[in-house]
Amino acid sequence: MSSPTRLMAPPEGAAPSGMPGPEPEPGLAPRPAPPLVLANARLVLAGEVVRGSVALRDGVIADIAEGAGVPAGALDCDGATLIPGLVELHTDNLEKHLRPRPGVHWPRAAAVLAHDGEIAAAGMTTVFDSIRAGTLKTPFESHESVRYAREVADQIIRLRRQGALRIQHFLHIRAEICSHTVLEELDEFAGEALVRIVSVMDHSPGQRQFADEGKYRQYYQGRHGLSEAEMAEFTRYTKALSAERGPAHEAGIVARARTLGAALASHDDTTGDHVAQSVALGVRFAEFPTTLEAAQACKAAGVPVMMGAPNILRGGSHSGNVAAAELAAEGLLDILSSDYAPSALVMGAMKLAELTGDLPGAIATVTRAPAEAAGLGDRGEIAIGKRADLVLLRDLDGLAVVAGVWSGGAQIG
Questions:
Q1: Long-range pairs for 264-267: beta carbons < 8 A, 24 or more residues apart
Q2: Which of 128, 124, 125, 122 lies closest to 89 in space, CA to CA?
Q3: Which in 213, 280, 354, 372 has the greatest CB count within 10 A?
Q4: 231 and 341 inside one domain
Q5: pTM for this prediction
Q6: Are residues 221 and 363 located together in one domain of the fold?
């Protein structure tokens, strides 16, 4: 490529027709960012990879040009890979900061800020903070007995409005059917615009992920240190609670998600019947289906499938569920999530690219596809008029290392 070739160009100062502009920040002034050109980069576009440059202005991508030239004042990326900012729909990372050890409850603001810094460093520019709604009132102290959703959400919103967060945070309410308080906790979020995803979860024994009650016992007994007798009582208790309140809780969760205008997600679909039930509820995507059968049913129903990036990196599920790589090979994997390990998101996408030979397609699983599933049409691609959310990756002994992050055109890492 001997000279730069403009790929697309809107009228000066205007977004192209039909392209959404950047989403307004409720109660938050836009982060000031000077114009910038990222030049001589390996651009991962939708469907192709080219050498070129990207111009950022007023928080959006203003121009894209093909070629290895470096205009005066531009940042020379020296052939490093430039991808859209990562979009994370489901991460348990915040909870690790809120409760770094059993019985230890960290200050809310400090936990949110540490979480924000960690995921920004991992290349995420949009995150849906997963917050559990629904507590269990049992004789046994457990993580599920601590009610925290509204309090933590308020802290996220406060820090967001103060401009203290590096990236864009939205709320993902993980609504637990097997609980006592899920509906009243959801009612605390009435009218909250930042709630963009509500997932319907059922972690009761004999259901979905825990269809094998032996796995339920292994998980909860190990997590909470229960004796055999305590575990038997805990299992009887949660089974009875699920039978008594499960149907009403499911209906109430779905109704409240609709009122909030949030995307509804299923969780741990295991059978074709589970998927049919999820489709009837109106889910927009499926989180972590546990079997090939469930993923195939999602595909047939047009429901995007999300799997954990750690599953890709480890070569399989840590809990014995279907391998994400198997789903990818069958064309059944649409979205990756870092789940419990923020650094896994970009690493998982690059591993997926290695497995499939399709870098643009793999990057789409952590950018465009999750953005579309969440209804955010203004990001997830390197395209004119999209948010200037970008990540620069450099190769270090075969490992893709995050070398620069821009959120809304401002460099944050």
A1: 264/197, 264/198, 264/199, 264/200, 265/89, 265/90, 265/197, 265/198, 265/199, 265/200, 265/306, 266/199, 266/200, 266/303, 267/174, 267/199, 267/200, 267/201, 267/202, 267/208
A2: 128
A3: 372
A4: yes
A5: 0.88
A6: yes
Tokens of 210: 């825990």
Whether residues 104 and 234 share a domain: the answer is: yes
Report the number of secondary-structure helices (H) and strands (E) in the chain. 13, 17
Here the CATH number for the domain that contains residue 274 is 3.20.20.140
pLDDT single digits (tens) 2-48: 334 445 444 333 333 333 334 444 434 456 789 999 999 999 999 99
Query: Are 122 and 193 part of one and the same domain?
Result: yes
pLDDT in tens, 171-229: 999 999 888 899 999 999 999 999 999 999 886 665 666 666 666 666 666 666 777 78
| Cα(126)–Cα(376) distance, integer angstroms | 10
Q: By three-state DSSP, how is residue 17 classified?
A: coil
Nearest to 308 by CA among 353, 348, 356, 265: 348
| Measured distance CA(214)–CA(233) in Å, rounded | 14
CATH number at residue 48: 2.30.40.10
State the total domains in the chain.
Answer: 2
pLDDT at 13: 37
> Over the Cα atoms of the chain, what is R_g?
22
What is 165-218 written as a DSSP string?
A: -SSEEEEEEEEESSSSSHHHHHHTTTT-TTEEEEEEE---TTSGGGSSHHHHHH
pLDDT, residue 408, reads 96
